[in-house]
Structure formats: C-alpha cells, structure tokens
Amino acid sequence: KPMNCPFHNLIFRSRGRSYRELPLRLAEFGTVYRYEKSGTLAGLTRVRGMTQDDAHIYVTADQVRDELTRNLDFVLSVLRDYGLQDFYLELSTKEEGNPKFIGDDSLWAEATETLREVAEASGLELVPDPGGAAFYGPKISVQARDAIGRTWQMSTIQLDFNQPERFELEYTGPDGAKHQPVMIHRALFGSIERFFAILLEHYAGAFPVWLAPVQVVGIPVADEYAAYLGSFIDRLRSAGVRAELDRSDDRMQKKIRTHTTQKVPLQVIAGEQDRSAGTVSFRFRDGSQTNGIPLDEAVARIAAAIESKTLVDTAEDLA
Fold first, then answer.
1. In terms of residue numbers, what domain contains 276?
2. Which of 78, 206, 226, 236 could be stapled to 241 by a disulfide with Cβ–Cβ 3.0 to 4.6 Å?
3. pTM of whole model > 0.85?
4. Residue 139 catalytic?
C-alpha cells in the first residue's frame, strides 16, 4: 500500500458514529511502499519502503481550527524535544487546471484559507508552495534547518474534505441528522527512516544523552576496580539508564579513545581513590572531566541529563 488513509476510513465507517465521538483520532506506525525513481533514492532520506507515523483525525466543521492548532503546537513541541529549533512553515496548495487534484474548488479554497490562518497564528515564517498539495487537499509542512543549515521537510498536517465524501463517511449530529466529518491527516515524523537520518546528520552521531543508544559506559582504571564500578553500572541500569561496563582487555586510555570515537555521551571512571571515597569520575566528549562525584549525586546528575533532553558535551553541561 502507498498510504494508510483508506484503511482508517474503513475503521471509521465500520459502525455508526456520533458527534460525541469526535474528534476521533486514529494513528499507526504503518509500512508503505512508493516506487520512487531510482535516481532520487538516497540513503535513508529517500527510500521506496518506509514506516510512517500516520494519524487521521475526524472532526466536525466547528472543531477544525482548534484541532489544527492543537496538532501544530504538538508537532513543534515534539521536534523541539529532539533538539530541532529552526523552523519555518510551508503552505502547499492546489495548482489550477491540474487534473491530479480532486474535489470542489470552493472546498479547496476554504481548506486552504483555514490552514493559512492557523499557520500565521503560530508566528512562524510561512512560505507558499503552489501546486505542492496532495491530490485530496492542501497541507502545512514544517521545514526544519539542521546544524549546517540544510532544510528538511519534517511533519505535515493536511486538511481533507474530499476523502470523507468519497468514502461516504458520516456521523449523527446533535440534530439527529447525518453529517460528513472533516478529515485531518497528520504525520509527526513523516518517515521514521528519514527522521532518523536527519537526526544523525544534525548531531553528527553525537546524540543528547536521552537519545544515545549507550548513555553511559563504565571504564575501570584497572581490573581490580571493575567490581566496584560494575555495581554502580547495575544501579544505573536499575534506574532505566542504558549503561555498559567495558570489561575488555584494552588499557584504560584505549578504552577512553574507543568510546570517545563512538561518541558515548558519558564515561564513568573509577580507581582506588574513587573506591575508597565511594565516588566516581565523569569524562565528557570534549575530554573534560569532573572527579570525585558521590554515587547518589552521580545517579541524580545522569537522570537529570536524560530528563532534560539537553546536549551534554562538556563538564559544564552537567555541573
């Protein structure tokens, strides 16, 4: 399948619906396939098979504006959580005379104007994209700039009066009569594969602690301190931290180089002084180090770094 929309429409239509159920929000991580031209394929950013976080929201006409605003706020909030801050919006509209676009012109005009007003209310820059709409309705797309200034299309929010008509979707209103819902399409990440590629490019692999596959690695100064440091790593794991202990035969300096190259956010080091005092030392990506941190405080600092979703590259970032 190239899209998830028809299947959500069938779920909506599977039984009678009341206005009391609206907004009705359906979402899935669905795999879709699109026969992109071979010359356009590129890594994870342009593929033929992808996983979309697709949501379809069915609303009454009176609920459209509030739901669009709610979704745009949600989208921007999530992208900011991932460390993307530099956005603008693109409004993709119908190209007059193009047979690709279905539906009544007046419905297109109404949908386009509603999206425009919601986009302008966000305060972000709004750029027109004539002819860039989907065949069934106009859309807002969030365009984000990464760390080196490249622009990527991220989330999309689309307004659709046409599919509800074609699929004969109805709900019973407060007046007892049948009414047609309005459909909102929302893709938060767009394609999971492409979003992951964008994050890799944006951070150059040096993820914030909360996103890193391995958040903390323990490096004992010598084998005799592995048990002490291992008990601390076990404590972190019990707290939900993705932590590992390097038990390899490599010398300590080689272990440090290895995990620095792998861009692990936090290296925890322990030797005789730490074991005697009940402390550990932190080493950061830039080579800076904080020594003699009590174990309880070390756990709390790591938990705070994960909770805050901030980038931790230096000792000052985890002060």
1. 216-318
2. 236
3. no
4. yes
